[in-house]
Amino acid sequence: MERTFVLVKPDGVQRGLIGEIIARLEGRGLKLVAAKFMAVSKELAERHYAIHKGKSFYDGLIRYITSAPVMAMVWEGPNAVALVRQTMGATRPHEAAPGTIRHDFALTVGRNLTHASDSVENGIKEIELWFSPGELVAWVRASDEWIFEDN
Q1: pLDDT, tens digit, for every residue of 48-101?
Q2: pTM of the predicted model over 0.90
Q3: Buried-most residue among 34, 53, 59, 74 (CB within 10 A)?
Q4: Alpha-carbon dihedral 96, 9, 109, 126, rounded to 10 degrees
Q5: Average pLDDT for residues 103-123, to the nearest whole number?
Q6: Extended beta strands in the chain, E state
Q7: Is 115 one of the annotated active-site residues of the chain?
């Protein structure tokens, strides 16, 4: 099973959309294996966004992600990375498909509600950055046999 990292950013938290985002991912059939509501330290923010260091928007990004609590999560399922990104919609909300979270609830890139890993490899790195191994819960969901094909 593939795992991916999802972050409900400060704007999603402030707007009360954590439940909506979780409901959409659960409705897809993905399984939540870790979650924590937290304030992001400057150090964690800088490590998470290290790829953007030196870019014009970097300082504002760090201020934004540390400005209010976030909901950090790990989701599991076949093709979890692609399915989560499809559910979230394009990074630019005006390009997001109807029915996606960003299409339905966001207007601008800087307030697009969520972050989701863009590859399996980055998912692994982001999960390791945001969660300790003991925070990931391996469990069998009763409905899995009705969601996952096992032929």
Answers
A1: 999 999 999 999 999 999 999 999 999 999 999 999 999 999 999 999 999 999
A2: yes
A3: 74
A4: -80
A5: 96
A6: 2-8, 31-38, 70-77, 114-116
A7: yes
CATH architecture of 2-137: 2-Layer Sandwich (3.30)
Active site residue: 48, 52, 103, 115, which one?
115
Q: Where are the domains of the chain?
A: 2-137
What is the residue whose two structure tokens read 């870790």?
34
Q: Which amino acid is present at 150?
A: D
Q: Are 69 and 13 in contact (CB under 8 A)?
A: yes
Interior/surface letters 78-117, b for 16+ CB within 10 angstroms, e for the rest: eebbebbbebbbbbebeebeeebbbbebbeeeebbbbbbb
φ/ψ of 98, rounded to 5, equals -55, 140
Query: In which residue are the tokens 């201020």 written?
Result: 63
